[in-house]
Design a protein that fits this description.
Layout: E1 8-15, H1 19-29, H2 34-42, H3 47-67, E2 76-94, E3 100-116
Antiparallel strand pairs: 1-3, 2-3
Length: 120
């Protein structure tokens, strides 16, 4: 799958949620049609992460409509979902006996690639 075979893509960078949590939601929608994926994301239990992924998916759909104006959205499916780790914010928290422990506030990069598939 090279970059030219995708109809569109969308990216959200430095999202303030951990990649591990985001991958759980991304696995739900991988290799599904766009309408089905939007329904799954709307009724998912992980509200914050699913809203972020839904926003990226809607952006990818808009990018596809902008790139190819006569495209049928019902034939679009999610070819690839990539959730990568972004930068980490390092914070300190007080620990017993005068020590300090590190807290890592993780970020993630979410990328969605759409392709067109005729017939269901």
């Amino acid at each position: 799958m090279n970059e030219q075979s995708f109809v569109s893509q969308a990216t959200a960078k430095y999202v303030r949620t951990s990649p591990q949590k985001c991958r759980l939601v991304a696995d739900l929608i991988r290799d599904r049609y766009v309408g089905e994926a939007l329904t799954i994301l709307r009724f998912s239990k992980k509200k914050k992460t699913s809203s972020i992924v839904e926003k990226v998916l809607r952006s990818a759909i808009a990018n596809a409509q902008q790139k190819v104006p006569n495209i049928d959205v019902d034939h679009l499916y999610i070819a690839r979902v990539a959730v990568d780790q972004g930068t980490q914010m390092k914070r300190w928290r007080a620990s017993p006996m005068g020590r300090a422990s590190r807290i890592l506030k993780r970020t993630s990069h979410v990328r969605i690639f759409l392709e067109e598939r005729k017939g269901r």
